Amino acid sequence: MTGRQAAETADDVVEAVPGPVAKRRWTRTDTWTALGFLGLAVFVVIQLWIDPNGRVLAGNRDDHGIFLFMLAHAERVVFDGASLFYEDRLNVPDGVNMMANTSILALALPLAPVTHFLGGGVTAALVITLGLGGTAFAWYWVFSRHLGRTPLAAIVGAAWCGFAPAMVSHANGHLNFVSNYVLPFIVWQVLRLREPGRVWRGGVILGLLIVLQIFINEEALLFLALTLGVFAVSYALMRRDETRLVWKRFTGGLGVAALTSGALSGYPLYIQFFGKGSYHGQPFEPSVYVTDLASLGAFARQSLAGIGPVARRLSVSATEDNTFFGPFGLVMIIVSIVILWRSAAMRATAIAGIVLLVMSLGPELRLVGFKTGIPMPFALISHVPVIDLVSVTRFAMVPAMVAGVLLAFAIDRIRDYPALTRKRFKIGMVLALVPLIPKPLPVNEGVPMPEFITAGLWRQYVPEGRTLVTVPLPDVTTGRTGQRWATLNNFDYATPRGYFMGPADPPWDDTGSWRAPHRYTSQLLWSVREYGYSPALTDTDRERIKADLAYWRAAVVVLIPDDRNVAAQRATLVDALGSPELVGGVEIWRVNS
Questions:
Q1: DSSP 7-73
Q2: How far is the CA of 293 from the CAs of 3, 170, 287, 301, 333, in angstroms?
Q3: How would you class 507 by CB atoms within 10 Å of its CB: exposed for 0-12, middle for 13-18, buried for 19 or more?
Q4: Is the Cα dihedral 237, 238, 244, 246 positive or negative?
Q5: Is residue 239 within 8 Å of residue 232, measured between CB atoms?
Q6: Nearest to 500 by CA among 143, 102, 125
Q7: d(C-alpha 495, C-alpha 554), whole Å
Q8: Is the CB of residue 292 less than 8 Å from the CB of residue 369?
Q9: How would you write the pLDDT of the chain (593 residues) with one tens digit per residue?
C-alpha cells in the first residue's frame, strides 16, 4: 500500500463517521477566525446598520417587513403576555397562526428586550449579522474540533458555508435562512449515533437540537433531513459490512431523537398544521420558483463579480440566488469531488448534494430563463405533503452547503499530492473564491413614521379593541409601509390584513396565501393605488366600505403620504368617508363605532 493509499484509507474512516477527535483548547486562531467572520458579516450588513429602524433591505422589502412582524410578535409575548402561537394584532379580526409562519421564536424571544428597547430594525440587523458570522463559525468549530480538519481547511470550508452566494442572497430579508448555526451540530450528532453507548444520550441531544431548529427554520431542517437520508442510504450501500455492525444503534438513536423532538414539539406542530389559520400548499405551482441550470456557473448579484441583469435572468429574486458558484467555483467543486472520490463518505456527501440539486431544478428543466420541456424527477413528488410547502429552488441551498464540506476536506487531502498539483489547486481556489467575496446588502430608505404615530397621538383616536387602518392597507408588496409602522411600534395598536402566510379563503379554500382574503374595500383601494383612478362611488359602495371598516373594528383611517397614486386614494376616501382631519402630519378619518 502506498503512502497516499494509506492516508486515503485512514481519512475514509474519519470522514465516514468521525470518531472522537482529541479535545483542544481555545486558540488564538479561533479568536481571529471568530472576529474575522463577525467582521465580514458586519461588512455585508453595514448599510442596514447605519439606520436599522429607518432603512429596509432593497433586495426583498416585503420579507424584511414580515420578519419585523415576527420580532414584534415575540416582543408582545415577552412583555405583554401575548399568545405564543397566535398573533391577534395583525389581520384583525382573524389573527395569524404563528406556527404556520416562519416565526423564528428561538431567536426572537431571547432578543425581545432588544426589540422592545431599540426597535425591531435593530434586532433584524443583529439576527442577520450573527446569522452569517455564527453559521460560518459553527461550521468552523465542527470542521476543526469534530471532523479533524486543519485550521486552513476549516476556515475556508466554513467561510463558504457561512458566506456562500446563497447565504448572502437570503440575507436580503430571510432572517431564518441565514441563521443556520444549529445545522452543523445536528450533522455531527447524527454521525455520532454509530458510536457505542450513544443511543440514549446522543438521541436526546439530537432531539433537543431538532426542536431548537424547528423554532428557527423548519424548511432548512427538512432540507437537512433529506440530505442526511440520501447520505445514509448511499453510504450504507457502499459500506455494507460496516452498516451491519452499526445500524441497530444508529436507528435506535434516531428513534430516541424522534421521540424526544416529537414530545416537545408535538403540540406546536399540531397548531401549525391543524390549528386556526393553518393552510396546505403554496400560493404558486412548483414549476414557478425553480433553479436555472445555467445559474450553477454564474455569479450572484451580491458577489464581487456579480452582474445584476445576468443574475436576474437566472434567478427568481434577490433572495433566491441559491447556487451561483461562478465558473471557477463550479470547477473547484468538481475537482474536490474527484480528489475525494475514493472516500465512501465523500462520495455519499457528493451524491446527497447532487440529488438535492436535481430536486431544486423542479418538474421541468429551465435553462437561461427558458423552459426546455425536459421533465425532471421532482415532478413525481411535487405534490407530496410537506414537500408541497417548500419553495423548490431552495433545495439548492444543500449543494451550496455540501460544496463547503467538500472544499474543506479537499484542502486537507491535496497535501498528499505532488507540489505542482498543490500549486494548481491553490490557484484554482483563489480564482474560485475571490470573485465570490460578498458585497454589502443594498438598502432603501423606509417611509418615515409621522408624528401621529411617533408621538402617540393615535392613542386619542384608537380605544382598546379597535384598530388603526392605514391606506394602502397592510398587504404583500402594496401595503408594506402600514405593516412596517405597526411592527416597529411592537403592535401597540392593532391593524387589519397584512403580509403573512394563511389560508386563501377559509373555510372553502385552505391553500396557502400571502395575504388575507380580499374584501370589497381592500380590493377597491388596491385597484385605486395600482391604476390611479378614483371611481364614483354609489350609496351601496359606501355602505359596503363602512361594513368592511366595521368588520376590521376600525377606529381611524390613516392615509400614508408619498405613496403611489396617493391623490386618487385620497379622493376615494373623501368620497366614502368625507373630509379628513390633518393630525400629526397625516390625514385621518374617524370611524364611528
A1: HHHHHHHHHHS--PPPP----HHHHHHHHHHHHHHHHHHHHHHTSTTTEEETT-HHHHHHHHHHHHH
A2: 40, 19, 14, 17, 16
A3: exposed
A4: negative
A5: no
A6: 102
A7: 8
A8: yes
A9: 343 443 343 344 344 445 555 567 899 999 999 999 999 999 999 999 999 999 999 999 999 999 999 999 999 999 999 999 999 999 999 999 999 999 999 999 999 999 999 999 999 999 999 999 999 999 999 999 988 899 999 999 999 999 999 999 999 999 999 999 999 999 999 999 999 999 999 999 999 999 999 999 999 999 999 999 999 999 999 999 999 999 999 999 999 999 999 999 999 999 999 999 999 888 887 778 999 999 999 999 999 999 999 999 999 899 999 999 999 999 999 999 999 999 999 999 999 999 999 999 999 999 999 999 999 999 888 888 888 778 899 999 999 999 999 999 999 999 999 999 999 999 999 999 999 999 999 999 999 999 999 999 999 999 999 999 999 999 998 889 999 999 999 999 999 999 999 999 998 999 999 999 999 999 999 999 999 998 999 999 999 999 999 999 999 999 999 899 999 999 999 999 999 999 999 999 999 86
Q: How far is CA 514 from CA 119, 359, 501, in A?
A: 25, 24, 5
Tell me the three cell numbers of residue 540. 351601496
Separation between Cα atoms, residue 27 and residue 422, nearest integer Å? 27
Whether residue 254 contacts residue 476, with contact meaning beta carbons closer than 8 Å, is answered with no
Residues linked to residue 325 through DSSP beta bridges, in sequence order = 299
> What is the length of the chain?
593
CA-based end-to-end distance of the chain: 88
- The continuous run of DSSP H or E covering 183 comes out as helix 183-192
Using CA atoms, how far residue 138 sits from 143, 178, 224, 492, 502, in Å, is 9, 12, 16, 37, 33
